[in-house]
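re: that chain from earlier
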Amino acid sequence: MNPTRKIPCYAVIFTSTLSDSHEGYHVMSDRMLELAAQQPAYLGIESFRSPAKKGVAISYWEDLDAIQAWKQNPEHQSTQVLGKKQWCQNYSIEIARIEAGTHFERP
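^ sequence. v structure.
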């Protein structure tokens, strides 16, 4: 939980497993992070990938309209096509509304 994130907000949870043929994925992933950060109502992202090629990316948005606009972004759409064709063995997307959260940080 980011202490500065506006609540309530929405989280888009993208889980995936990379295929053996994922050359170029990391360059495109960096580009998508850059592009998402330029979108209105974008609040941030956290992502993790295991050595076994399983990953989770959670992006945060102010509202559902912002998520829909990101989904319809032409560059994002073309990246989704490449993901299905060559980079991802599988993936799933879930959307959740965040109603509350807490944060702890050691001084």
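Residues 74-87 form the longest helix (14 residues).
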